[in-house]
Amino acid sequence: MMNRQRRQGFWQEAFALRGSVTPQILPLVVVFGLISSGICSVTWIVERRFNVRLGLEVAPFEIAGVALGLLLVLRTNAGYDRWWEARKQWGAIVNQSRNFVIGALSYGPAEPGWQEQAVRWTAVFSHVTRCSLRGEPLSMEITRLVGEESAAQIAAADHMPSFVAMKLSNFLRTACDESKMDRFTFLQIERERSLLIDHVGACERILNTPLPRVYSIKTRRFIVLLLLTLPLVLLHRLSTDWLVPFITMLVAYPLLCLDQIGVEMENPFSKDSLSHLPLDGLTATIERNVLGLLKSASDFVPRPAETALDCTPGFSSPPAQTH
Question: What pLDDT, in 10s, does the model give residues 67-100?
Fold first, then answer.
């Protein structure tokens, strides 16, 4: 079953660590707090020794904060767009797999061997695509579905999803060449198969085209500059100087969280990302659905050939003659 996000209580989610970027950015928050303490100590020593008041005005930080906020929002939105686009492509893979199997079982050969192989290779396509996008070795599900020899052929292919798609196309061509599937039906089901490769290509485009590096460079540079100079703004505006590092850490926490969220959503396929797509659940759903269709195929009795309607475009069955 697909892992579903469970909504918990307000306080449970507010202080939850699992699924949060807090453990990843907390060391950086502490580092900025220590740097702020060092800046405060150096400033205090300089002021005492040279009798010079050091500090910065708050007005430039207000302008810089707005610019930094816009950069963080743009980067977060760009990361979410990539995540959502990947989820839509996988939703399309689910639908196309179902459509392909429904067409193959309904209009293809009634031979149990042909039907089982077509369905099993359709289920393999989603597993192979998942492994290809994640850069993982072939999973045991593939060997279980098509055997060790076929799994070895898939692993040796230069592009594994294309190899499986070609296998599916061969099944359709064999059925068409043996006159067990009419040409119009062949073209319709072949279209469903070709769309599977289109969706894989869209996922690979997301995977192989990361966000421009200038986003992360400029955003993180602004964050560092703001947090390193923030103690000079707070130093003479707080009643006690020891509060400056804590205020700096409080400001650093949301900024670094937003920056890390953009990083997490940049690659929606990697299991290292906190909010990666549940590809294991999606592929398990596809396998369960198509194998369920195969199991139900025996409940549908095909019409005799002499009474079936000709579905070829441009032709219609002759009207029945009455005597």
Answer: 898 889 888 999 999 999 999 999 999 999 999 9
Q: Can you read off the two tokens belonging to residue 292?
A: 């369920």
Tokens coding 171: 């099944």
Cα 181 to the chain's mean position, in Å? 36
Alpha carbon distance 101, 120 (integer Å): 10
| DSSP label of 170 | H
Q: In which domain, by residue range, is 290 found?
A: 92-209+283-297
pLDDT of residue 320: 44
Residues 6+ apart with CB under 8 A from 164: 121, 124, 125, 128, 154
Q: CA torsion angle for 290, 295, 298, 303 (degrees, to 10)?
A: -10
- The structure tokens listed for 120 are 């099993």
Asked if the structure places residue 288 within a domain, the reply is: yes
181 lies in some domain? yes
Distance, CA of 222 to CA of 251 (rounded, Å): 13
Q: How far apart, in whole angstroms, are the C-alpha atoms of residue 292 and residue 123?
A: 11
The residues, ordered by sequence, that sit 6+ positions from 42 with a Cβ below 8 Å of its Cβ are none
Residues with pLDDT less than 70, the chain: 1-8, 298-323
- CB 145 within 8 Å of CB 120: yes
Quick check: 200 and 129 in contact, CB under 8 A? yes
Cβ-in-10-Å burial (0-12, 13-18, 19+) of 320 comes to exposed
For the chain, what is the domain count?
A: 1
> Is 278 within the bounds of a domain?
no
Q: Which residue has the tokens 């999803």?
A: 161
Give the distance, in angstroms, between the CA of residue 51 and the centroid of all CA atoms in the same chain.
58
Q: Note the helical H segments in 265-300.
A: 279-296
Residue 52 lies in a domain: no
The pLDDT of residue 292 is: 94
Residues 269 and 34: beta-carbon distance below 8 Å: no
DSSP per-residue codes, 256-270:
HHHHHHHHHTT-SS-
